[in-house]
Amino acid sequence: MAFDMGSHTHGVLKMGFWKILFIGFLLVSSVLGGDQVGKRKESKPCSFTAIYNFGDSASDTGATTATFGPFPPPYGETFFHKPAGRASDGRLVIDFIAELLGLPYLDAYLNSLATNYRHGANFAVGGATIRRQNSSIVSRFGISPFSLDIEITQFDNFKSRTYDLYKQANTLERRGLPVPNQFSEALYRIDIGNNDLYVGSQTLSLQQLREELPDMVNQLASAVEHLYQQGGRAFWIQSAGPLGCSPVNQILNPNIPPGFLDKNGCVKGINDVVTEYNRQLKDRLIKLRAELLEAAITYVDLYSPVYTLVTNAKNEGFPNASIICCGYFENNARVPCGAKAIINGSEVYGASCANPSLHLSWDGVHSTEAANKWVANHVLNGSASDPPIPITQACHRYN
């Protein structure tokens, strides 16, 4: 049975720039095997020179704001103390990855000012999908026209231009450019798919959506194969998270029938499809390891850690886990984070909560910095990965 939230969604997301904000997702264990633990302990940390990131709003560090205009305050208030191109109050998981690897925060590829790509670039765009969407879907759901294949094309252009410019530039001019022969020494991270699943859950029956999963997986795998042909060797591929647990489900449908929800208030049917997608993705990546003989491909399970966090939020330090931090969502009125609206003759502001660190959800879709940090701490150590290696060792190949 399909769970139709389309009519409600259309009404909320038709807010110009704000459509992008409502399409991301509140993101992000398995037990380590003895043999892999032994290998992991013996492996030396990788010397990643750069990160090339592909994805959606969960890892967008400025592409959306470069295209549609900046996020308003209070976005960015916790860490950057101003809007910083991120759909959160602070850092994203990709920022914690950069910190852990000793690299600068990634500049967005689409951001043309004050950028430095010496240590990588971020091709992620808010609302991006694995597969291209038709114009009606883009308009209705605020999906980005920048699908994964376009992000990959942008990377190709970036790499090609890097080679040309590096040859022509003097020593000073090269400081902001990647070193061409170091593309093979970079970490390639892909974190995308939630928007495909979200739109599918709104426009298809769950059975029809299941039938679309193989094509999604194959297109993502094709992106990995292409990056491999372009010299990429270390891949950190993240699964979809428990989309059915996103607070946006309750925002758009406050009267969801109890039978559709699990014990944590998550929409069961959607999460079941996400679980199947993740299973197929993992299986396909295992096959890719055998096909791409020089690639180190790590599958990262985001679903399990995030669902564990949702289940045990209070014990993990998030007593206000069920409350959205930023925005106004009362009496069927919805004012997005940082926006203003006239409600019953009075101006209402989508303000932030007093302490975002006590909340999981920043704006109803995207995570707070505190939640992102929790996810990073429980994912980057390899405990949710196959093979179970930390991101600092993701350049090592394991069969």
UniProtKB/TrEMBL annotation:
Protein name per the record: GDSL esterase/lipase
Keyword set, alphabetical order: Glycoprotein, Hydrolase, Signal
Signal peptide (from-to): 1-33
GO molecular function: hydrolase activity, acting on ester bonds
CDD domains: SGNH_plant_lipase_like
InterPro entries: GDSL, SGNH_hydro_sf, SGNH_plant_lipase-like
Biological source species: Quillaja saponaria (Soap bark tree)
Claim: Transmembrane is one of the keywords in the record: no
Family: Belongs to the 'GDSL' lipolytic enzyme family.
